[in-house]
Structure formats: structure tokens, C-alpha cells
What we know:
The complex is a heterodimer. By secondary structure, chain A is of the alpha/beta class. Chain A is built from 11 helices and 9 strands. Chain A has helices at about 20-35, 45-55, 75-80, 95-105, 125-140, 165-170, 175-200, 220-235, 270-280, 295-310, 335-350; strands spanning about 5-10, 15-20, 110-115, 145-150, 205-215, 240-245, 255-260, 260, 280-285. Chain A has a 5-stranded parallel β-sheet. In chain A, strands 1-2 form a two-stranded antiparallel ribbon. In chain A, strands 7-8 form a two-stranded antiparallel ribbon. Chain B is about 55% helix and about 10% strand. A 5-stranded parallel β-sheet of chain B has the order 2-1-3-4-5, sandwiched between helices. The interface of A and B includes residues 173, 175 and 253 of A.
Amino acid sequence: MATEYKLRMGDGKRIFMTKEQIMADLKEGMADAADLGSIPDISADELDKLFDILTMPSRMVGVELGKEVPVTHDIGTLRIDGDQGNSGVGIPSSRLVGIMMHERAFGADTMELGHIDYSYKPAKPVIAQEMQTMEVVQQNTIVPMFYGAMPNMGLYYTPDGPFENPGDLMKAFKIEEARKSMEDSAKHLTRDIVWIMQRMMASGADGVNFDTVGAAGDGDMYASLHAIEALRKQYPDIYIESGMAGELMLGMHGEMEYDGVTLAGLWPHQQAPLAAKAGANVFGPVVNTNTSKSGAWNLGRAVTFIKQAVKDSPIPCHVNMGMGVGGIPMLETPTIDAVSRASKAMVEIAGVDGI
Amino acid sequence: MSKEEMFKELSDAVISCKKDTVTAAVEKAKGQGLEPAEIIEKGLATGMNEVGILFERGKLFLPHVMMAAGAMEAGVAILEADMPKDAAKKKLAVIVNGTVEGDVHDIGKSIVSTMLQSAGFEVHDIGRDVPLQDFIDKAKETSATMIGLSALMTTTMQGQKDVIEMLKEQGMRDNVKIMIGGAPATQAWADKIGADCYAENASEAVVKAKELLV
Lengths: 355, 214
Ligand code: B12
């Protein structure tokens, strides 16, 4: 009987696969990415290396010496305090403690302050609290400190916001009205992000993290890119990270453009140059994990996409690695065997600059 | 022009998302003596399926899906006169769709509703963070034959199971099919909780709903 290796499904379930099955899944995942993104396959050597990484006997793997990359943590402030419902570990602690633990105990290279509602809009009513916390955090840490949140443009639509919900309008065939609603929301979103960051910069922030740009579709990305542009202009030294929400920019509006490029339908390697153009320092590409496919399929696919993003990006790429992204299974606390293998592959094969 | 070529022209017309192109193609097909049912099934609906796939691949966007659906509706309207009364207007089936209680993620769920509607289903989208009993009440009220349950978090997936249990308790399980979806859901989860089907994305949801209901 052929040797079987222990792998995981995209939902984290333990599975056993032979070398032939693993290679077949790696190739199938790669082909899916190449087809969707109109990008090249990875090489046969790289596929072999992926196989080696997936089948290394040790439970946990690491990158080769000298290939270490910076590791940053987005909502890490809350990952200690929040429980599994927040993809956290549920140890009661303040945001300051969460940040200091990441800096001093876990070796995070940058950190960010974020609030529990983690979108820009709800930070407005609590801005004084955010400013005060940023100051205290900066007095206690030395790692570069971002303020981070999700642009989350959906909060500007009814019932959460002032503009009629484009989803409802669209279903009633009111396409132009839906588009107008998105355009109006985008303007408000840009304004809110800039307003919040002006205050956070006044409180000593080193930069801003745009987490999950485009979660509400192309309008969300449009608003975020314009906010990046405005912040870069006002603060030439501000450190800006722009991370994706999902692998494909959803076309809710369909016609919004930045720098002459239609935003809807863009894959990671096509988004990176736009983030750079707007003024971001770091781009965070995302590839989603398919829970119904094996880890080999998911990783073959994710590495193919990310390798191209790294190639096409004028700025460093810090790939999003976590629950349900980057070839990592969709589990609250993803298993270390899967996380460390996917991370090693991203660094050594896709060539990412950070995680 | 062969029948096959005519079906292709009808399908391409829907994919073009242009009402005029669709209505012109329908007139032409009628002129060639094609049956209204096959014009719709083999021509227009095939095009609509393709639109769903192009959307999933990021080649067409949500407004296009709606325009294509609108164009298809205009095409069907032309055929109505020649069809048994109400046959053309008749919706494929009634579906209640929503995101389960405790979960505010609704982007994917709304896309699923839109695609189901575009494919000819009567969809009652009851929103997000919906109390579980509301799914059942709405299904009763609208005589729906399917309930779609979206959950985007591992912590709220349980709601999908609960609705199925509640339907059983209320003696309604056999009246409706349950379709589940959302990033953490899988076929294995659907099997475990006794859902009738699982779909990975919106176009698959249309295919699965048709398989079960039409
Ligand atoms: C956008 C987003 C948000 C937005 C949602 C805005 C909105 N109006 O929907 C906001 C900011 C509000 C949000 C909030 C939260 N979120 Co959130 N969010 C996301 C994100 C980035 C994208 C989801 C999305 O819209 N994808 C795009 C759509 C098109 O895809 P989709 O939803 O998968 O839908 C497709 C299929 O799944 C399928 N489908 C979907 N529904 C259905 C239904 C049926 C019947 C069928 C057949 C098919 C089907 O078809 C769709 C189209 O192809 C995901 C991460 C990710 N990349 O998935 C996290 C994610 C889902 N969120 C997460 C979390 C933790 C939260 C919060 C708890 C955070 C917090 N600390 O406050 C809160 C939740 C509050 C609550 N009670 O619900 C976690 C869930 C972790 C877990 N435990 O499972 C995720 C996975 C991020 C992560 N890795 O940590 N979030």
C-alpha cells in the first residue's frame, strides 16, 4: 500500500493522502488560480517543494535560517481578550496588555490598535477613547503602531446608515439608484477614515491599517484608495498598509475606477499596483480557503496567486494568513501544522515580504 | 439557422445584458417557429446560467446580472401571449432566504438572493441576524418550498441545525427543502445536520435549487 500523509481539509478535518493524490490536488489548485487570474502556473520544482513542505514529518515547520520575514498582527489587540467568537483566546486583558504581549512575548514586528467594533465608522463616537489609548500604548511600546479598522462601507447603507441599501435597490432593478447610493456612501467613508486618522495621527500613531478593503465591494475599495491618497498627501511619512478582504473584488457597482482601472473583478496581483499608486507602503493580498477542498488544493492555489501578486506589486506584500485565508483551514484557532506549512510556503515559494 | 444556433444566439443575447438584443433574438426565434418553452429553457435560461458563472469568475458584475435578468424578463414577456395563461409569469418556486440569528454577514447571502431571483425564483430575503422562528413563519406565510440559511461564522452555523430541528418539532420538515451556505459550511456539515443541500456559491445555489425544486 502506498504511503499516506496526514493533511487537512479546508475545514480543518484530518485526512490521509498519497503522494499521487497530493500532487494531483496541488496541480488542480494551481490550475484553478492560473485560470481565474490569467496568470502563469508555478514551476515543477515549486510544486515539488510544496509537496515536501506539506509532508514534512514534524508537526510544526519554520522557514529556513536567513529567510525570516516581519510578522504583523492586525486586530491582535483584541485576540487575547476576545474569545472564540472573535477568533481569539478569551483571556481577560486590556488592549494595552494585548499589544504588549504581542510585542514582548510573541515577537510581533508591528502592532495595531483597533476597537471591538473594528470598523472606522463606529470609531467616530468613541474617538476620544481611541486617542487616549493610542497615547498610552505609544508610551509603553516601541514597535511601529498602526491604528486599524475595516472600511466596511455596508455601515453607510440602511438600516445602519443614511443611504438606501443598494442590495434592496438592485433587487428592485433600480440599478442607477443603487450605484448612486454606493457613490454617496463612498464619499462619506473616505471622509470618515481621514477624519479618524487625523485624530489618531495627532495622538502619535505611526500609521494606518486598512483591513479588509473591498469587503462591501468595489465602492469600498474606491473609498479606501481615495482615503489612502488623501492621507499620504497630508502625512508624507505616514505608514499605510492596505489589506484585501477576499480574493476577488466584488463588483457591486461595476463601473467604479481608480487611475483608469475598473475595480470590479480585480484579483490580488491586479489590486497591488493600485494600492501602491494611491500611496500605500504595504499591500496585504488575500486568497480564500475553500472548506470543501484539501490543504494541498488550497495551498497550490493560494501560492500561485500570491506569487504573482508579489511579482506585480511595486510595494512589499504582507500576505494575509489566518482563519480561512492563505491556504489555512477555516477554524477559530487553526492548527499549527497547517498554519506553519502554509506560512513557510508563502515565504519560500511565493516570496512574500512579510505576513 | 439551425435550432442549436438559434439557442446560442438567444443565450448570447442574455449574456450581452442588453434588452434590445434579447427581444430581437426572441422575435427571430419565434419567426423560425420555435416553441416558447424551448426558447426560454434552452436559450434564455442557458444564457442566464452562463451569466452566473461569469459573475462568479469576476468577469461580470452584480448590475450586469440584474440587467441580464431584466433583459430576459422582457424576452419572456414577448412569449407570454403564445403560452398557456400564467405559464410564463409563473415563478419556478418560492424561496425564503436569510442569515441566521447572531450573524450580521449578509453580502454573500444577498448575492445568493439576487441570483435566485434572476434565475426565476420568487425570493423572500428576510435579511440578516434573523430570529430562527422567523424563517419558519415566513415560509408558512409565503408557502415557500425552500429555506436558504446563510451563516458566515463557525459560532452561528449551529443556527442552521437549529432551524432544521425546529421544523421537525413543528411538523414542517417535509414541507420545505433546506439549503445551507456561507464560508464555513461544507457538504459534510449539510449531511451532518440533515440539510437537503449545500452550495458553495451563488451560481451553484441556483443549480442546486433547480435540482431540488423544478
Ligand atoms: C465583510 C466581513 C464582515 C463585515 C460584514 C458586512 C456585511 N454586511 O456582511 C462586518 C465588519 C460587519 C463583519 C463583522 C464581524 N465579523 Co466578519 N468578515 C467579513 C469578511 C471579511 C468577508 C465576508 C464576505 O462578505 N465575503 C464575500 C461574500 C460574497 O462571500 P460569502 O459571504 O462567503 O458568500 C458566498 C458563499 O459563502 C455562498 N453563500 C453565502 N450565504 C449563502 C447562503 C446560502 C443559502 C447558500 C446556498 C450559499 C451562500 O454564496 C456567496 C456568494 O458566492 C469575512 C472573511 C472572509 N474573507 O470570508 C469575515 C469573517 C466572516 N468575520 C469574522 C468575525 C469574527 C466577525 C466579527 C465577530 C468581528 C468582531 N469581532 O466584531 C463580526 C461579527 C458580528 C456578528 N455578530 O455577526 C470571522 C468569522 C470567524 C468565525 N468564528 O467563524 C471571519 C471569517 C474573519 C476571520 N477570519 O476572522 N465581518
